Structure of YCII-related domain-containing protein:
Amino acid sequence: MRYLMTTKASSSVPDEKLFQEMAAFVEELTASGALLATGGLAPEGIRLVSSGDEITVTDGPFTEAKEAVAGFALVEVRTKEEAVELGRRFRRIVGDGESVIQQVFGQ
């Protein structure tokens, strides 16, 4: 089962300890084969809205910084509970904030 884990931007400034803990976490997940992709996201984006035959294209950013998704990880695990546990471990490393875990359907 694949899950997309996203995290919203935070006002906290990362320190060396956070970088070390996150590097170890990413290394562990990569070695186990659970981590398929990870990355940060720019606050800008392009919104496409369709209505009938018309498609409107608008440049972003679109939300307040605190609402924007700042990063993601795509993981492959056996159960939803495993995905939640990885999310818990991530939140313990990065501290206060918000993440969302969604199952990815298809290949």
